[in-house]
Amino acid sequence: MSTAPSHSRPARPDHAQPWYRNAVGYQVYVRSFADTTGNGIGDVWGVLDHVEHIATLGVDFVWLNPVYPSPGLDHGYDVADYTTIADDMGGMEAFTALRDALHDHGIRLLMDIVPGHTSDQHAWFRDALTGPDAHHRDFYVWRDPAPDGGPPNNWESIFGGPAWTLDEASGQYFMHRFLPEQPDLNWRNPAVRTAMEQVLRQWFERGIDGFRVDVAQGMLADPDWADTADPTPDMTRDEANDLRFSGYMGRPETPELYRSWRAIADDYDALLLGEVYLSSPELVATYIEPGLLHRAFFLPLQHTDWDRDEVAAMIRPGVDVGHGQFAWPQSSHDDPRAGSRFGGGAVGARRALAFFHLIACLPGTPVMLAGDELGLDNGTVPRTDAEDPVTVRNADRDDGRDGSRTPMPWNDTPNFGFTSGTPWLPLGSNRGPGDTVEVQSREPDSPLHRMRRFLATRSTLAGMLATDEVTWLATDDEPTSTLLGLRRGDVVVVCNFGAATTVDLPGDGELVAASSDDAEVDGARLELGTDTTALVRMPG
Ligand code: NOJ
Questions:
Q1: In the chain, what percentage of residues exceed pLDDT 70?
Q2: How far is the CA of 178 from the centre of ligand 1 (A)?
Q3: CA-to-CA distance for 413 and 164, rounded, in angstroms?
Q4: Ligand 1 within 6 A of CB of 356
């Protein structure tokens, strides 16, 4: 049954296509976007204050990281109540104002749903802890100890240490893929599914346009509780993690969980965008089969260096199996920003922009993290100022995520206009006035202006956006080539990962966009500068 919300949603320009078909996403890590209260932590009012910036950028939807009530041990991914917005984030009043302001600009709003685990402060878990007969006991995953009294098996938590914590009162262990303060929900219990479906409906009724689904490949654990094998040295980081966490990640029955979610979301014309953190594109694609999630992030792309072969090895199979339903991340709050991965500073910014031009031309959904439009690299955060539990709780780990979460630089005032108080994370000693929105707004060739111009142009490329068919350019097959090129509809897209070169086009073309000034088309020849992506429209 469709229950239309009472307020207005952005008009859908083309009724034959869902609104998200060619949408560009903008991730707002709210804590680091803009603080309006002076407590040093960004809030929903702060997002409202900058809706104009988001609208000028030309993105189609905003994905807000979690803003529900939370003790904040994993910065919002430890949800204590799914049904409302935290007071210190601005509460429901700020949410409503933001929703309406975005909709007034034709921008959709995605919230972040965290279905795999709650905070240990959630009422369900507080109840579950009262004993084995508690009403919500079976909302969580409990096991008896191993014969030696230790954890039930060798599963490790992603945030370090065992994936099991002993509840001394009952003598049973509860499971947690992440922190002990983030107990896992038991998705084999139908009552959990019903409860979460109610949460989805409630937010759709409130007029949101979709959810990013946290750890969508998690949710179910191996029903045999078998020990997992150790990775071997020849494995990539992503393959090793897939194996290490295979007891509770990527179980083959998981995608089916989303069938009921999809039916609910489609009633509201809403988008379900899964964080499906698996290395195999074929496995990621099992989550977007008909009737399941609308879109799935292909996240290993977020681990690539500025390396043609590495990027091609991700993008080509991803496009092949993604059928226009993969989401392509530029950066996120969980991995180093594109600017850092690609060399940092001006070089990293130039390459990151070229990379975004490339992924935004692939069939599917490009998503940037707030700050990517400025070409930011990671902010420097000394270990002593770390906030991420990955760093704080593991002296031996250097994969903490604070660097991509440092505050958004707005202008050249103290704290770059982010807060009047003390920022919850350092601003990053590597940041300067040239990184700010205000300064870049004054410079026509800044990353910000280039990004705005590119997104405006992209939205006019109807001949490209109309199709999901891609052919790869033959130049890519030459082993020494630095080029990755494709044709989608009437547009040829070429990204040059190396020094300036010349590209033979399939015919005379017209340059419609480029990530730097170093691109020129003369008939069927494209002169392409170093670290640059060009889009060339082919007539006919
Ligand atoms: C994935 C989120 O992106 C990450 O930030 C969080 O720590 C984990 N899920 C746990 O919820």
A1: 96
A2: 8
A3: 46
A4: no
